[in-house]
Backbone:
């Protein structure tokens, strides 16, 4: 596709339920990032995939969070047993290589009620 | 940690004036990127400047990079109401991009 695509745009879920957020990176981009942003705050790094290398999971806030990237393309971020503090905008980004720009999707706004 | 920090946190100017935002970081980088964000959703990529570049232009945007001072500035000339947004810098010295807290820019008509 022309840009990074994320779905759904908005998700409201009940506390304790699991959610899956999807990211389609720009075709051919080998690097994929997940960030989250709470209201009025900066971006918090979650996880980074680069090609076939082991992902950098250092930003995942708890073991309730996991992510996978299938076939080096689409990525899914899964949050299990959601809590109210998980409410945020989850942003995905991709880049071709270290020398090029990193481009973001429109994000998924997650609200846990 | 390697972190971009924007300054000021908030800036309010009149339409037509120039706006300057600054970014400082802590460790060596490969490149630095500036982004704009409206309404807390996706970030729009504005410009990337490499570590061996000192200045870059794109339309009404001018970005400078001083690696000796570990700082960058974003200048928006002839501001418009549509420039009202949050602006973030991001550094890429290792793997992941590291963002600052952003500068909230308000352009008053």
Residues:
């Amino acid at each position: 596709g022309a840009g990074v695509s994320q779905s759904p745009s908005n998700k409201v879920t009940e506390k304790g339920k699991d959610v899956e957020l999807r990211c389609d990176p720009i075709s051919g981009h080998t690097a994929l990032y997940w960030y989250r942003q709470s209201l009025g705050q900066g971006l918090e790094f979650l996880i980074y995939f680069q090609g076939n290398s082991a992902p950098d999971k250092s930003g995942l806030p708890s073991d309730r969070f996991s992510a996978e990237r299938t076939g080096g393309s689409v990525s899914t971020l899964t949050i299990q047993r959601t809590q109210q503090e998980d409410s945020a905008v989850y942003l995905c980004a991709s880049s071709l290589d270290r020398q090029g720009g990193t481009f973001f999707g429109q994000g998924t706004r997650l609200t846990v009620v | 940690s390697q972190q971009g920090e924007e300054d000021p946190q908030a800036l309010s100017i009149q339409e037509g004036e120039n706006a300057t935002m600054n970014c400082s970081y802590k460790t060596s980088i490969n490149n630095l990127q500036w982004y704009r964000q409206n309404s807390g959703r996706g970030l729009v990529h504005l410009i990337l400047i490499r570590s061996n570049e000192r200045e870059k232009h794109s339309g009404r945007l001018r970005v400078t990079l001083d690696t000796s001072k570990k700082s960058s500035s974003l200048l928006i000339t002839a501001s418009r109401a549509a420039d009202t947004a949050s602006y973030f810098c991001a550094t890429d010295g290792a793997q992941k991009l590291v963002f600052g807290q952003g500068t909230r820019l308000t352009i008053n008509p």
